[in-house]
Write a structure and sequence with these properties.
With about 300 residues, the chain is an alpha/beta fold. It has helices at about 15-25, 50-55, 75-80, 90-100, 125-130, 160-175, 190-195, 210-220, 235-240, 255, 275-280, 290-304; strands spanning about 5, 40, 60-65, 85-90, 105-110, 140-145, 180-185, 200-205, 220-225, 245.
Length: about 300
């Protein structure tokens, strides 16, 4: 069995997934589609870059992350579906959505977590000194992007930047030591709103993985505010770094977090992180176990 994994080159998590797959699974992988038995389409929109004649000769598995049915083309999905034999999703919510569109087999497995990148750092005091924050600061984090496109103004509503601002207001009302820590590109929507509300924040636009892990470990609270997600992977990354986390009922959240850690905006103050619960649920996706779940999926696919 040889698997070819398509490229995406968008500085997204799937770029890291592809790299780690080839590092950890060289014996069942190939970088040439012509030499493969299975083509793994890492995301639906890379279909346009793949040789359709080759796809017709192979077993094809496609990963889907979420469905925004307000911006969904059934025609485009059906075009993809003619080439795909099975699907992979990273959460049960997406599986339910996909089952409404196809009768083909769907396997739900969150992406693995690389513990050489994401891990708990015990010395929080030294981290605060490193980043120049006070011991009294209550640090609230969000590491993603907020705007739809190059205008850097229009909020990407499925990511819920407006929700994030609303719940951070609640945090700040209850704790004037609250300070927001942002990372990722296109955070202008949240930055503008925090500035208007005079809520203090620190912004690290693009950081490497070492710094990102330190930022997770720096936080007192990470807030997922998305309306629609596949992951987000931040839930699993918070889990293994033991970063306190609360989330909207989105993506993989109900599979990883305790019920008390999933909030509705109007009852945000009733939510609370459960670090140990999230860690126990997340750790089974650490390498190598997390990758072995994918190997098992592909072997069953190959033998079917």
């Amino acid at each position: 069995m040889k698997i070819f994994l398509s490229k995406i080159n968008e500085s997204w998590i799937v770029d890291r997934v592809r790299k780690e797959w080839y590092i950890n699974c060289p014996e069942i992988s190939t970088d040439k589609i012509s030499n493969s038995d299975i083509v793994w389409i890492i995301s639906p929109w890379v279909l346009k870059d793949l040789d359709k004649k080759e796809l017709k000769k192979k077993k094809v598995l496609c990963s889907y992350y979420h469905f925004d049915f307000n911006n969904f083309s059934l025609e485009e999905f059906q075009y993809l579906d003619q080439y795909v034999d099975e699907y992979h999703v990273i959460c049960e919510k997406t599986k339910v959505d996909l089952q409404s569109l196809t009768n083909k087999k769907i396997t739900s497995i969150p992406f693995w977590i690389n513990q050489n990148i994401f891990f708990q750092i015990d010395d929080k005091t030294s981290l605060r000194r490193l980043f120049g924050v006070k011991d009294t600061d209550f640090l609230v984090g969000s590491f993603q992007r907020d705007t739809e496109g190059s205008d850097l103004i229009s909020p990407k509503l499925i990511k819920g930047p407006d929700i994030f601002v609303e719940v951070v207001k609640k945090v700040y009302e209850n704790n004037k030591n609250a300070k927001v820590v942002l990372s990722g590109t296109r955070r202008q929507y949240i930055i503008k709103n925090l500035s208007d509300l005079k809520i203090p924040f620190i912004y690290y636009e693009m950081v490497n993985f070492e710094t990102l892990n330190k930022l997770y470990n720096l936080l007192d609270l990470y807030i997922v505010s998305s309306r629609i997600e596949g992951g987000p992977q931040a839930i699993l990354e918070c889990g293994v770094t033991k970063t306190p986390l609360v989330s909207t009922d989105v993506g993989v959240a109900p599979e990883i977090l305790s019920k008390d850690s999933i909030y509705k905006v109007e009852k945000f103050n009733e939510s609370k992180p459960d670090v140990d619960f999230a860690y126990e649920k997340s750790k089974k996706y650490l390498i190598p176990n997390g990758i072995k779940l994918f190997e098992k999926m592909f072997m069953e696919f190959y033998e079917s």
